[in-house]
Structure formats: structure tokens, C-alpha cells
Specification:
Strand content: 25-35%
Number of helices: 4
Number of strands: 8
Helix content: 10-25%
Radius of gyration: 16 Å
Distance between the termini: 49 Å
CATH class: Alpha Beta
Order of helices and strands: HHHEEHEEEEEE
Number of domains: 1
Length: about 170
């Protein structure tokens, strides 16, 4: 593991749980590659249903991320405010192509990448294809709830394919 990644991982060892957050299904696969695939599958559901509470359950509390809208943010609440809230309600049909998932890992660290698609909306409500790609770094963490040491995202990066409109406004009602 590189020194910068090791420092990031060390910062993520904080407890993930929050007394106001109900426990969700945990990703506890033994295989890092299977964990990455399960993580992307869970994200599909949470993004499409715009379920911020459930999505928190697959992210470390101190996750470091950047995305299609957010500059670099640290913390799941900052990610929710600066990325999820500005995108998830304004798109439809979000889907990670699970057949595109590539990943690996060793010990308590896993990495993965995949392509995804969604439908965005111009300011006048016309839809457009909104494809992109993502990377994730997962780490097994003590959550204090189950003792299962689930895999949680400690880093994510989502980007749009070149040429894709940067802004989505949501459907016209």
C-alpha cells in the first residue's frame, strides 16, 4: 500500500455508526472483488431511490470523495450535501453496469472501478444520456454494531464521460 493511501486508511478507522442512523444491510463478503460488486449494486438501489439514509450505511463517516458536482469533500455528510442532494433527485435511471466492475484488494482494503449510466435533464426538461465512470476504495471497518467488520467506502470518485453536459436540472413537473 502506498504511503498516501495508508494515511487515508488510518484516518478512516473512526467508528462509522451514528445513533440516528438505522443499521442497513452490511457488505461482508470475504472476497474484495465480490465486496466491490456488492457495493456498486447497493449504490444502484440507493441512488435510484434517492435514499440518503440507507446510502450512508455503505460509506465510512470520514469518506474522502469528489464527483460530478462536488469538489473534494471529506465526510459522508459533506458528500450528501455537495453531491448526492444536487444530483440524485435530478436524474433518473441510474445504473452501474455490474458486468463492467473490475477490482481487487488484499487484506482489509479493496478497490474497484465501473462504468455507469443515467438520464439527465436540460433546463427545459428534455432528457439526455448521462454516462460516466467511478472508482471506489473500500476498507473493512469496525462499526461497533455487529462485529462483522463490513466493507465501507473510504474514497469515491465519480466523473462524467467527456462531452456529457455537466448540469442536470431534473424533470419539468
Amino acid at each position: 500500500m502506498t504511503a498516501p493511501l495508508a494515511r487515508l486508511v488510518d484516518r478512516q478507522r473512526l467508528c462509522h455508526t451514528c445513533p440516528h442512523m438505522p443499521p442497513g444491510p452490511e457488505i461482508t463478503s470475504k472476497s474484495p472483488t465480490d465486496a466491490v460488486r456488492e457495493w456498486f449494486a447497493a449504490l444502484n438501489d440507493y441512488c435510484e431511490s434517492v435514499d440518503y439514509v440507507a446510502a450512508r450505511t455503505i460509506f465510512a463517516s470520514g469518506v474522502a470523495s469528489f464527483g460530478t458536482r462536488a469538489d473534494i469533500v471529506t465526510g459522508v455528510e459533506a458528500l450528501r450535501k455537495n453531491q448526492w442532494e444536487g444530483i440524485w433527485p435530478n436524474i433518473s435511471d441510474f445504473k452501474v453496469d455490474l458486468s463492467s466492475v473490475r477490482g481487487g484488494g488484499e487484506g482489509d482494503i479493496a478497490w474497484g472501478m465501473a462504468v455507469w449510466s443515467s438520464t439527465g435533464f436540460h433546463e427545459d426538461g428534455r432528457p439526455f444520456d448521462r454516462p460516466g465512470r467511478a472508482t471506489v476504495v473500500l476498507q473493512r471497518q469496525e462499526t461497533g454494531c455487529s462485529g462483522n467488520r463490513p466493507w465501507l467506502a473510504v474514497h469515491t470518485h465519480f466523473s462524467l464521460n467527456p462531452g456529457t453536459p455537466q448540469r442536470t436540472y431534473g424533470r419539468k413537473r
